[in-house]
Write a structure and sequence with these properties.
By secondary structure, the chain is an alpha+beta fold. It folds into 3 domains: 11-194 and 412-424, Nucleotidyltransferase, domain 5 (2-Layer Sandwich); 255-352, no CATH class; 433-563, Substrate Binding Domain Of DNAk, Chain A, domain 1 (Sandwich), CATH 2.60.34.10. Helix 5 (255-269) crosses helix 6 and helix 6 (271-280) crosses helix 7 (282-296).
């Protein structure tokens, strides 16, 4: 099993570090399904209230922690108003930096004004905040629980790279979470656990009476602020689940709707005006963004009223009404958007247009998955964006033959499911490999299989294929979540060899033959060897797949020396 799963902890706590919002939840071992979460986080201006707090981080000029969430937004707005913000660091939505990227320990992030900061420090301070908030809550409630009594579950998207997952673990350890008490959990999987473990009355939307029937297949759509993760699961006889199609997704979460709105502001008022607003009155800029966040939650097919957002006076002072009207005519028309009495009036049809791009990508992705998995009966919708009435309506219209299921705590399904995953990790029984993993090396040349230009002749006269892809585990292989260990042994090439290097690659090809341009280099594992003593020096490599992170260890058979946790991708 994975790190953190062997002991009987008093409490399991989940940290849900999201692109737009973050939070935590926990439950006690004696009553694991009674899950506690902080309740409502408030923006402080009487406006936006949320079950999670924004993923925003404010650091002092000396790079020390100042605040997180709504408080960080408000403090930064105050600093801007007093023109004292220039030396402070403000980060928002920075989780997307880990999406589809090969991360390194020395990676840097740019804050909102372009100042650089070590990425590992930024992520660790954000995780530390969630950890400290959790511990403070436990202390206030008189639980008597200390750090060592807690198993931590940290959620990550299933579509992240191996290096991004390792980066997140190291950031969490840097934040003070003991490595041996920490498990990384995949967001769509834990949402699936939540829906399978909670009572059916917690699933008020959709036909759920047969969802736990063995053989039942459903598509899990975890659509949050930044990314949309999709998995296809099948219920087993023991009510565990097997992943029957590899996790996939893309960057088309709810934040895309906000970006379309911000594009409209730029079209109407101009970049210079919006930049002036940010520099002179960040509080008003945040206010209009929060107001839109509230308004977009009620967008639906049934809601036909206009939406009105109060405009900051700074915008109206900086940009003349004539220019505004001309811009509206150029990009839209006055039936869609207009300025009335200091307010921006947006028609319901234009509000829906802001959703078009993300909705199209989501529906296209689901259609592709369902076309490959005809036995899928239901679409299980979770995540913050999953609460959108418009998204729900589009999925019902787009897939009328499928049963759309939405849990009661749609926005909290991931964090609450992560708590339950801490107690019931084997609810996720098997996973599909997203890539083929292998070792670059030599293979006996097979005519018709290996390309001629890769053929070389050794001194012995044998013909080999150079840079062959020795498959450790193929893409789409079904692997138990307890892990599958694959072994390889390699001998030294000469008696003077002082170290042994093994080159690890991955590819989306199911049956790779050679290492070529379709392959991605992952890691060079270099091990020091003992001095040659007349005996052949052989190294055994053990790779473990199927966990949320790839593991590796090696052993020199001659001496028994072991090397642990050598699969360092950072």
């Amino acid at each position: 099993m994975e790190t953190g799963s062997e002991r009987n902890y008093l409490l399991v706590a989940a940290l849900d570090f999201g692109t737009t919002y973050s939070g935590y939840a926990y439950s006690f071992r004696n009553n694991p399904k009674e899950i506690y979460s902080p309740g409502v986080w408030n923006a402080g201006d009487g406006g936006l209230a949320s079950l999670r707090t924004p993923t925003c981080l404010l650091l002092n000029p000396d790079r020390s922690f100042n605040d997180f969430g709504f408080n960080a937004e408000n403090k930064y707005a105050d600093l801007c108003a007093d023109f004292k913000h220039h030396e402070f660091y403000f980060f928002e939505k920075f989780k997307m930096e880990l999406y589809h990227k090969t991360m390194r320990r020395d990676a840097v992030l740019k804050d909102i004004s372009g100042k650089n900061m070590p990425a590992l420090l930024v992520f660790s301070l954000a995780v530390r905040y969630l950890k400290e908030e959790l511990l403070s809550t436990l202390t206030k409630r008189g639980t008597g629980v200390s750090l060592g009594d807690i198993k931590f579950i940290l959620t990550v998207p299933a579509i992240w790279s191996d290096s991004s997952k390792q980066f997140m673990r190291e950031a969490a350890v840097m934040a003070g979470l003991p490595n041996e008490q920490l498990i990384l959990a995949l967001e769509p999987e834990v949402a699936s656990v939540y829906c399978l473990k909670v009572p059916l009355e917690n699933m008020p939307f959709g036909e759920v009476y047969n969802m736990k029937t063995p053989g039942y297949q459903y598509l899990l759509a975890d659509i949050g602020g930044g990314t949309a993760d999709f998995s296809v699961h099948e219920v087993n006889q023991d009510r565990s689940v097997t992943e029957i199609y590899t996790a996939s997704g893309g960057a088309y979460g709810g934040q895309d709707v906000n970006e379309r709105f911000l594009e409209m502001l730029l079209h109407i008022f101009g970049k210079e005006t919006i930049d002036v607003l940010k520099s002179k009155d960040m509080e008003d800029y945040l206010s209009i963004c929060r107001s839109f966040e509230n308004k977009k939650r009620i967008v639906s097919d049934e809601y036909l009223e206009n939406f009105r957002l109060k405009l900051p006076t700074e915008i109206l002072d900086e940009c003349s009404l004539d220019i505004i009207q001309e811009n509206i005519r150029s990009f839209y028309n006055e039936d869609l958007v207009s300025i009335q009495k200091g307010k921006l009036k947006i028609s319901s049809s234009l509000m829906k247009m802001f959703f078009d791009k993300s909705l199209t990508k989501i529906k296209d992705h689901i259609h592709e998955l369902i076309s490959r998995n005809s036995n899928v009966k239901s679409i299980l919708l979770v995540g913050g964006y999953g609460e959108s009435k418009l998204l729900q309506s589009e999925l019902k219209k787009g897939f009328p033959e499928k049963n759309l299921v939405i849990p009661q705590d749609c926005n909290l399904s991931v964090v609450k499911g992560a708590v339950l995953y801490g107690y019931y990790p084997l609810t996720i029984f098997q996973r599909k490999m997203r890539f083929s993993y292998g070792v670059k090396g030599y293979a006996l040349f097979e005519k018709g299989k290996h390309p001629e230009h890769r053929k070389i002749k050794l001194a012995s006269g044998d013909e080999h294929c150079e840079d062959a892809f020795d498959v450790l585990v193929p893409k789409n292989a079904t692997i138990p979540t307890t892990g599958l260990t694959i072994s390889r042994t390699y001998c030294t090439a000469s008696s003077t060899q002082k170290s042994m290097d093994v080159y690890i690659y991955k590819t989306e090809e199911e049956n790779p033959i050679i290492v070529d341009g379709k392959c991605s280099f992952l890691k060079r594992i270099s091990l020091p060897l003992p001095v040659y003593s007349g005996r052949e020096r052989v190294v055994e490599h053990n790779f473990t797949f199927g966990l949320t992170e790839v593991k590796h260890q090696a052993k020199i058979l001659e001496t028994g020396q072991c090397f642990l946790n050598t699969f360092d991708l950072l």
